[in-house]
Design goal:
Largest interface: A-B, 34 and 24 residues
Helix content of chain A: 25-40%
Strand order of the largest sheet of chain A: 6-7-8-3-9-10-12-11
Number of strands of chain A: 12
Shape of chain B: flat
Radius of gyration of chain B: 24 Å
Shape of chain A: globular
CATH topology of the largest domain in chain B: MetI-like fold
Number of helices of chain A: 12
Distance between the termini of chain A: 36 Å
CATH architecture of the largest domain in chain A: 3-Layer(aba) Sandwich
CATH superfamily of the largest domain in chain B: MetI-like
Largest sheet of chain A: 8 strands, mixed
Structural class of chain B: mainly alpha
CATH class of the largest domain in chain B: Mainly Alpha
Order of helices and strands of chain A: EEEHEEHEHHHHHEHEHEEHHEEH
CATH topology of the largest domain in chain A: Rossmann fold
Number of domains of chain A: 2
Largest sheet of chain B: none
Oligomer: heterodimer
CATH class of the largest domain in chain A: Alpha Beta
CATH architecture of the largest domain in chain B: Orthogonal Bundle
Structural class of chain A: alpha/beta
Chain lengths: 334, 308
């Protein structure tokens, strides 16, 4: 079954409800083996929740419905032990704030060894040797000396490298990077993105890169999903999305990026604010903020529909192709 | 590390001196031992003789300096009542007190911490609410009420347990339970909130995301971190082991330090009261020192702070 189906993970109609308020409204998404997928959107649009829900990592008050299949095996509603098998071993995850994502009272070596013992059955000297190799692989200088140090003795960027080392320990098929560079300086950010690219080339694992930074996404991803208010509104390849964004929201995200290759001009912010999930507008959630909205947008919500060029789009009045063509800012895309 | 310990030891000595000074002053301000010891109708000569014998006719600061000097030479004074060494009288009572306080502490730890952790892991459940309610009852009901209720139920109504005395281990059951209930409540509340705090931390999510079993997430990631605040409270409890319990020992006529303190204060037996306070203060200070060292062991972040 696994080899016939190129998709490693398939999410179908994934919904998440917190205390009776639906925050994720039916996500359909596939991740193919080895691919790098970006998930973009403002804070609170559900990009992280999608994957926390898929792995069963949301707190108990969250209700998750729909289907999450990994290699055809259903995870949604599965027993805890089934989820524990997938976590770390098939799908690993790294988080936004690396310094607080590592346990402060355990040495970093021990935390990596823990994953090695769990997923690869390594113990003692073998586990230590492999942990040192992983630390070296993610660019921690002088691993033997730093094996027994604690997280607070490392910088934020190094903690993220250690998180990555720990994630790699289970030899996952998919790494979910949840805003891995948001808390880091720009230079460190670039190093971490490079590291992710290198590791993906070396290991062939798939990557889901969650970010609000389109530039970062373009550096590591092949395909991008743009999310808004708990739904995917546009999905395309990086090239398509960056040259011709079709959803007015996607377009708005690009217009809000300052450009260093063009004359100075006012940035065009998206007017209004993200709607409260308790009181989503009727019809298309983006319609109250949308410059292209017509009356129909406020009545009926357009479904996510495949287009001829391979992208998927949920918009009644998409940006016309000619008008959407834009010069790709240098530096945003490599 | 050595500097850390030395600084702490110096502070400990200062703390103990402060306690001793306070006790010295307050005891002498609050009543005349001669009057209390000899009774109200005693001739002035006898009173004067008594005061001269015990040095009470000297100015306060002379008495104080003499007292401090004798402490540093290991002389803790003599009981005015039975002329025995105060330290000896106090130490004689230590085993009886420990017979109650050590089992009580064990009960507190064995019941309080697991109850709090369980409640935290089953938040908003029936068990959680039950634990909170019992814990609040435990530490709000004063021990003199709790002790009397237990006596009423188990000694008077059921007649299964003795209401006082120290003859057999059975006599220790009711006082031990009375003594432990408040601490169980405090530890349950404290462990619960410490655990809830830790369970919300990002590294707990990391541990789950790693694929660790739920049990291992709790045992190897949550509990070691939650232990840090719990140790503080336990430290206080260990420090007060020797202090015993004035109220509980009085209710159950248990001949421990608490009882000795009550009797000695009412007799204005200065040397004994001062000696008890000194021993209690020393125990508190030592247990605090141990807690500080434990912190460093439990939390590497504090270890490197102390080193810098």
């Amino acid at each position: 079954m696994g080899s016939a189906n190129p998709n490693l993970v398939e999410l179908r109609d994934l919904k998440v409800t917190f205390d009776g308020v639906e925050v994720l409204h039916g996500i359909d998404l596939d991740v193919a083996r080895g691919e790098a997928l970006g998930l973009v959107g403002e804070s609170g649009c559900g990009k992280s929740v999608t994957w926390l829900a898929a792995l069963g990592l949301l707190p108990g008050k969250a209700a998750v419905t729909g289907s999450v299949r990994v290699d055809g095996r259903e995870l949604c509603g599965a027993r805890r032990s089934a989820l524990e098998e997938i976590r770390g071993g098939r799908i690993a995850m790294i988080f936004q704030d690396p310094s607080s994502s590592l346990n402060p009272v355990l040495s970093v070596g021990r935390q990596i060894v823990e994953a090695l013992r769990l997923h690869r059955g390594l113990r003692g000297g073998a586990a230590r040797a492999e942990a040192l190799r992983l630390m070296d692989m993610v660019g921690i200088p002088d691993p033997p000396r730093r094996f027994d140090l604690y997280p607070h003795e490392f910088s934020g960027g190094q903690c993220q490298r250690l998180m990555i080392a720990m994630a790699l320990a289970g030899q996952p098929d998919l790494l979910i990077a949840d805003e891995p560079t948001t808390a880091l300086d720009a230079t460190i950010q670039a190093q971490i993105l490079d590291l992710l690219n290198t590791l993906r080339a070396e290991t062939g694992m798939a990557l889901v890169f969650i970010s609000h930074d389109l530039g970062a996404v373009s550096q590591v991803c092949e395909r991008v999903c743009v999310m808004y208010a708990g739904r995917i509104v546009e999905e395309a390849t990086v090239a398509q999305l960056f040259s011709e964004p079709r959803h007015p929201y996607t377009r708005g995200l690009f217009d809000a990026i300052p450009r260093i290759d063009a004359p100075r001009q006012r940035l065009l912010p998206i007017s209004g604010t993200v709607p409260n999930p308790k009181h989503l507008p009727e019809g298309c959630s983006f319609s109250p903020r949308c410059p292209r909205a017509v009356d129909a947008c406020g009545r009926e919500r357009p479904p996510l529909t495949p287009l001829d060029d391979g992208r998927r789009l949920a918009c009644t009045r998409p940006v016309p192709l000619a008008a959407s063509r834009r010069r790709i800012p240098q530096g945003v895309m490599q | 590390m050595i500097r850390f310990v030395l600084v702490r030891l110096l502070r400990a000595v200062i703390t103990i001196l402060a306690v001793v000074t306070f006790a010295f002053v307050v005891l002498r301000m609050s009543g005349d031992p001669a009057q209390v010891m000899l009774g109200p109708d005693v001739p002035q000569d006898a009173l004067d003789a008594f005061r001269r014998t015990w040095g009470l006719d000297q100015p306060l600061w002379v008495q104080y300096l003499a007292y401090i000097k004798s402490i540093f030479t290991g002389d803790f004074g003599v009981s005015m009542r039975d002329k025995a060494s105060a330290l000896h009288l106090v130490l004689e009572r230590v085993p009886a007190t420990l017979q109650l306080t050590v089992p009580a502490l064990i009960l507190k730890l064995l019941i309080g911490i697991p109850a709090g952790v369980y409640a935290a892991l089953h938040r908003q459940s029936f068990a959680d609410r039950g634990v909170i309610m019992l814990a609040i009852m435990g530490f709000t009901i004063p021990s003199f009420v709790m002790g009397l209720v237990l006596v009423l139920v188990f000694s008077v109504l059921l007649g299964v347990l003795p209401s006082g005395g120290q003859n057999t281990w059975v006599h220790g059951i009711l006082p031990t339970i009375t003594m432990s209930i408040g601490g169980i409540g405090i530890l349950a509340r404290f462990s619960r909130s410490a655990m809830i705090e830790v369970m919300g931390q990002p590294y707990i999510r990391t541990a789950s995301a790693k694929g660790l079993k739920w049990r291992d997430v709790i045992w190897s990631h949550a509990l070691p971190t939650a232990a840090v605040p719990i140790v503080t409270i336990v430290g206080f409890m260990v420090g007060s082991l020797i202090a015993g319990a004035v109220v509980v020992e009085s209710i159950f006529s248990w001949p421990g330090i608490g009882r000795l303190l009550v009797v000695s204060v009412s007799n204005r037996d200065l040397a004994v009261v001062q000696c008890i306070l000194l021993v209690i203060a020393a125990a508190m200070v030592v247990s605090n020192l141990v807690v500080d060292l434990l912190y460093g062991w439990l939390d590497p972040r504090l270890r490197s702070h102390a080193a810098h």
